[in-house]
Amino acid sequence: MKVIKFKEEDLDSAPTILVLGYFDGLHRGHQALFDKARDLAAEKNASISVLTFPESPVLVFKKFNEDLFKHLTSPDKRLALFEENGVDFLYLTDFTSHFAKLTSHDFIQKYVSHLNIAAIVVGFDYRFGSDHGELSQLSEYESYQIAQVSDAGEKISSTRIRQAVLDGDVSLANRLLGYDYEVSGIVVHGEARGRTIGYPTANIESKHYQYLPAIGVYVVDIEVSGVRYRGMASIGYNDTFGGKNKTLEVNIFDFHDEIYGESVTVYFLKLIRGMIKFDGVDALITQMNSDEKLSREF
Ligand SMILES: Cc1cc2nc3c(=O)[nH]c(=O)nc-3n(C[C@H](O)[C@H](O)[C@H](O)COP(=O)(O)O)c2cc1C
Ligand SMILES: Nc1ncnc2c1ncn2[C@@H]1O[C@H](COP(=O)(O)OP(=O)(O)OP(=O)(O)O)[C@@H](O)[C@H]1O
């Protein structure tokens, strides 16, 4: 897949299926658009292109807070998902105040018309331009609007998945995504207390502005140097020890290496319980024994 900043002179000139949207998380609803795009690409001997934005359009409309930078995926995972879904050309353009003022007609003139469009694919609720135009206005192009993909009678959307993650309901998030929710980061030093209680943990700091699941204890897999291990994670303040910082820590099963500074990926599989402030270390250890049993059996 080629990642290209959208400029007229850099566009591929061969026929292409254009898929439009922001696609945070590339969930099962989004995947339906790419299923259609791949069928069309095969039928018309065309490539698949996406025209999207590096950051959320919402940044242009709302007072800033750090959450507006957050994504359901790391930047690398976002690219990998587009690639897995068959995208050949990923065109990026910044969503700015100027961009937001374009009407649907302007958008077609300035962007779409410079590509060699074989067909366009969007979702059932796709609107674009400052006038919130509908795809039917693009009548000069062959276009397809994909029906709503639902789960439990409700639209699968990035917003719904974000809420599930923030609620700690990673099982729901994973079902809606169609893959396991993951957070990647670097292993850093913690308080070095874990090893003294028989449960050493890799403390993980993410630098990607990803959503962290709710405070609690989770069954996880963790990928270290290309190998995936089972483990159990804690997200919280280590209440028993009066911790001040919120940490993501993973006790990796059957693993004994030093991995400070390594980039790892944590896959959240299931919420086990909330965080508990124990009266002493022994009660915490007893609880962690049963967390481990449950995690190994999951
Ligand atoms: C699976 C798991 C469950 C945990 N549950 C709790 C808990 O309920 N309450 C708590 O205060 N700390 C909990 N912790 C966090 C420990 O307090 C923490 O791992 C320990 O203090 C080591 O911290 P360190 O990595 O900074 O050395 C849990 C950790 C893990 C890995
Ligand atoms: N569940 C779905 N079924 C079918 N198409 C969808 C679904 N969700 C999104 N789409 C389509 O995918 C494209 C990208 O949509 P968008 O990035 O707005 O995702 P979203 O999940 O609806 O996000 P948000 O929750 O922020 O509204 C659009 O063309 C949209 O219509």
TrEMBL record:
Catalyzes the phosphorylation of riboflavin to FMN followed by the adenylation of FMN to FAD. Residues 176-298 form the Riboflavin kinase domain. Transmembrane segments: none annotated. Pathway: Cofactor biosynthesis; FMN biosynthesis; FMN from riboflavin (ATP route): step 1/1; Cofactor biosynthesis; FAD biosynthesis; FAD from FMN: step 1/1. Keywords: ATP-binding, FAD, Flavoprotein, FMN, Kinase, Multifunctional enzyme, Nucleotide-binding, Nucleotidyltransferase, Transferase. Its EC number is 2.7.1.26, 2.7.7.2. Belongs to the ribF family. Pfam families: FAD_syn, Flavokinase. This is Riboflavin biosynthesis protein. It is an enzyme of class 2 (transferase). InterPro entries: FAD_synthase, Riboflavin_kinase, Riboflavin_kinase_bac, Riboflavin_kinase_bac/euk, Riboflavin_kinase_dom_sf, Rossmann-like_a/b/a_fold. GO terms for molecular function: ATP binding; FMN adenylyltransferase activity; riboflavin kinase activity. GO terms for biological process: FAD biosynthetic process; FMN biosynthetic process; riboflavin biosynthetic process. It catalyses: FMN + ATP + H(+) = FAD + diphosphate; riboflavin + ATP = FMN + ADP + H(+). The lineage of its organism: Bacteria, Bacillati, Bacillota, Bacilli, Lactobacillales.
